[in-house]
Amino acid sequence: MNSFRTHSSHWGAFSGRYEDGKLEIRAHPADPHPSPLLGNLPAVAHSPARIRRPAVRRGWLDGKKGNAEDRGADDYVEVSWPQALDLVAKELRRVYGDFGAQAIFGGSYGWSSAGRFHHAQSQIHRFLNVLGGYVRSVNTYSSGAAMVIIPHVLGPYDHFDRKSVTWDAIERSSELIVAFGGMALKNTDVHGGGISAHIVRQTLNGARARGARFVLVSPLRDDFPAELNAQWLPIIPGTDVALMLGIAHALVSEGLHDREFLDRYTVGYERFEDYLLGRADGVEKSPEWAAGICGIGVDDIKNLARAMAHARTLITVSHSLQRADYGEQPVWMGIVLAAMLGQIGLEGGGYAYSLGALGNIGKAQLAVPLPTLGQFKNPVPDFIPVARIADMLLNPGDEFNYNGHAMRYPDIRLVYWAGGNPFHHHQDLNRLRAAFKRPETIIVHETAWTSSARHADIVLPATTTLERDDIGAADRDPLMIAMKKLIEPVGEARDDYEIFSEIARRLGKFEEFTENRTSRDWLAFLFETTRSALAAGGHEAPDFEVFWKRGEIRLPLKPDDGGPARAFRNDPSGSPLQTPSGKIEIFSQTIEGFGYDDCRGHPRWYPPRAETKADESYPLHLVCNQPHSRLHSQLDYGDFSRSTKIKGREPVRINPADAAARGIADGGIVRLFNARGSCLAAAVISEDVRKGVMQLATGAWFEPDDPTADNAMCIHGNPNILTHDVGTSQLAQGSTGQLTRVEVERFVGEAPPVRIFDGPKVQNRSQ
User: Fold this and answer.
1) Is position 497 annotated as part of the catalytic site?
2) Of the listed 60, 76, 109, 522, which one is catalytic?
3) Which residues lie closer than 8 Å to 255 by C-beta, 6 or more apart?
4) Which residues of 199-208 are buried (b: 16+ CB within 10 A; e: fewer)?
5) E-state strands within 162-260
6) Digit-coded pLDDT (tens) for 285-312
7) Whether 449 is catalytic
8) pLDDT digit string (tens) for 105-157?
9) What is the pTM of this model?
10) Please, what are the domains in the chain?
11) Which of 60, 76, 111, 417 is catalytic?
């Protein structure tokens, strides 16, 4: 009988064994609340969605004129590995030689594996840098606006608030937690690199048992755990800044703001107050003004302001709020509101961006570094904000603004993608489909036949994390895991490292890329980074073979000392912030100097772009949030993900009043639509969704009803067929995929079957 072997994933540490054709998974015994996402893993070993052999799109392979127009609808031809690798090497040599490195876009999103070595993003960037570089992307779809605005206001992203407010401090000291966008437990199921203990539920329950109160500001009631009995303020989507301004106005009107803190620790408050009180534009941002925009009662706004001023209050702002029009504003305004309360730097109080968005945020920091694969230096200066890929492919040479810089989109001839599915993350999928018809060649490493694979010219089957050895480790998680191979590679799948090594060999770069190390050599080499730091700190420091045999080691943590926020509060001169003023920038002269009309020098209210005449015929707000049944679109074919679907389609939640007005029954198939596209889904009638709002999670694999049509309908339920593809503002150009406007109707007739997990039509070259 096979014994269980240790392994890890973004959603939890576990062990597994493969026996009698079945993969059995056990959660780590020390995890108090293991994620149900582990239930998706067994399908990896046998799903027909897996890519089993290298394949090349027929039109591209045959050299058909104008063949790029067939991407997404063409057949595929299976080829041998030597032939596939020769084709890739030949095409890379051609594009680098004829157009230079600035004509190649290296795409990846980093979530394909929790391993420190077999990390597709690191592998592809290292490979392309060895060849001469590539056009890169910056920031993330999850936090694109925050990653740009926070450095201007607080200092480096992930430095100030994420390293200052811990779950332990909340459990000990927080009296009131006001969560704009909520803290859905499903989001804390995952963390990049792994999570060995899911502690958020028990920590929040501990704070409640001590007497802490919770306020949820969200159109969805279950954006906070039900057992916390949070006060629910069912806000109109996209109006949180108006509510924050109304609270701020109430603080000033009743003299509840902390002027001493504002004077000592911030700059520019006077300019902001002129705006808040209407001295700058004639419009007071009063609770009455805010109530008319956000749908929250005037008394509720005033009472919340008073409660926040008279308690140890923590303000949190979720990723979701900044994944919308003008997404920089709620992040910034949350900081201003916390500064007005004067509690930044106090234990359990102040401000925390994205607390609850990932499982390890809020835990103590590690005291030793983690293994990291070097990527070399990219000599190409060109880059795009990650959410602007369709703009780049559709508009080469066009100008765009980003964070104070006037830039131009490069002319991309070849896209090389490994570790990610842009047809999950990106918005307006019909527009993205058109964009993916522009490059001359698209090469993809994939584990399964996602839409990204189906829009590629050369598809190279990559192993999943279960099919190789690796080291699992993540920031703020104290357990390093020996990720031991659990199953043999499915079909002819190969590790990304092996694939890139063989292409590098064909291009004369093998030794430079591999440094003559095998995968096992690399694991031992990278482990030494952590081992030597352990030894230097006087901790137990086993060698690699001992670690591998044990299966895990525990890493030391730094003390919970309040982090940079506490240090700044205690000594603002000796521990200044890394901002131009060294203080919290309520007014940023830098941002004001950019001259952007959609992001000025202090936070302000901008009505969402959807509030236009073009969208008046789409009266419902659609919230496109993260799924609870998978990580992004990963393993959508897994058993747990599929068990949450209704009649094979994604569920969409709708308020009873909105359903009744349209004759929609619970469980019925419905069609959501707007000017950008349409999709089918299965209705779930729920009081947990505000009237006028629907919720459809992202991540269902995109399946067009007609792959040849320009304006296809997704029959599976991917909401990104409906979302708009515009940047948050000229400052950050972040994703706005969280919210859109739609109408919904009953689907009449027989709904087309969902077959996306069956794989496309593939032929062997000999056929």
Assistant:
1) no
2) 109
3) none
4) bbeebbebbb
5) 176-180, 213-217, 231-233
6) 999 999 999 999 999 999 999 999 999 9
7) no
8) 999 887 878 899 999 999 999 999 999 999 999 999 999 999 999 999 999 99
9) 0.97
10) 52-140+370-554 (3.40.50.740), 164-363 (3.40.228.10), 615-746 (2.40.40.20)
11) 111
